[in-house]
Fold this sequence. Notes:
InterPro entries: DctP_fam, SBP_TakP-like, TRAP_DctP_sf
GO molecular function: metal ion binding
CATH class of the largest domain: Alpha Beta
Structural class: alpha/beta
Protein name: ABC transporter substrate-binding protein
Number of domains: 2
Largest sheet: 6 strands, mixed
CATH topology of the largest domain: D-Maltodextrin-Binding Protein, domain 2
Keywords: Metal-binding, Signal
Shape: globular
CATH architecture of the largest domain: 3-Layer(aba) Sandwich
Signal peptide: 1-24
Number of strands: 11
Strand content: 5-15%
Strand order of the largest sheet: 7-6-8-5-9-11
Helix content: 40-55%
Number of helices: 14
Order of helices and strands: HHEHEHHEHHEEEHEHEHEEHHEHH
Oligomer: single chain
Amino acid sequence: MKKMIGKLGVTSVLLIAMSMSLNAKEKVYKLKMATTWGKSTTPLIDSATNMARLAEEMSNGRLKIRVDTSNKHKAPLGILDMVKGGQYDMGHSASYYWKGKDIDTLPFTSMPFGLTAPEQYAWFYHGGGMELMQKVYSKHGVLSFPGGSTGVQMGGWFRNEIKTLDDLKGLRMRIPGFAGEIMAKLGVKVTNIAPGELYTTLERNTIDALEWVGPAMDIKMGFHKIAPFYYTGWHEPASEMQFLINEKKFNKLPKDLQQVMIVAMRVSAYDMYIQHYDMSAQAWDKMKKEQPNIKIKTFPTPVMNAMKKANNELRVELGNKSPVLKEVLDSQEAYMKKAREWTKMSDYLYLKDNL
């Protein structure tokens, strides 16, 4: 499986999988997938539903996957446990949601000041990331695959402008993952709230700020009506979702259907990435015209420097606690140093000279 993932291109694997499926016996395999997302959480939910559709089409109907949203199973942040325990065969979520259960899973979504989406995809498939991810998830009896990236996420919606570090102290904010640890170190009262409860929590003044994703997904949530200060990103430069599969269930599938699933996940993940990019471009154009009250801000340099300092300190602390986590973080850092030189030469210098 690992050799197939890393060595063959998507098109080659797709053709092989389809050919194998057409020649196989017509037994139908039915799986259930739980997602963190609600029915309207586009494009996150689309990655899961598109994967199920592709798998059924490529298998000539031999593989049917039922996708249950959080509206049905009522456990949006419990996906890992449900897949691990066999309640569901598959899941679609974000790896950093269960940092409290297994800190080693944290980096496979995104790390502050870390890899961009193209860099992270390259790390996954050509820099050893897939092997490290399977190493981490194997102890749970679960396989994990990239499930779609949102790219750089915005830094969040705030009721009041952040001018100094003192403005962060005591601030109540929804922000998950490692970024939450950084904010907590700077005095923020951090909480993690399921997607479907974000607006209500902000509206009821339970929190003062929150981060969600970016224009594509934020525009329909209405956060700007309450918290008009919209900060640029730093904390999630490549937020990758995850497909989780119960390993025992996966191993019981015929080999050709295993490859069908791998291809369907990879294709739907990339489709989500480009879909979200397009949605964000259109949404931001609309927001600029129709929501003049939104104030775009970048965190002041002293605040950003404090975030970077806290990030570096916490990475060392976590690495000392978990050798496996340190291995993953070191791998990402080494790959970023190599890839970032090309990112600068290509994307950065091009944009710098053409904006």
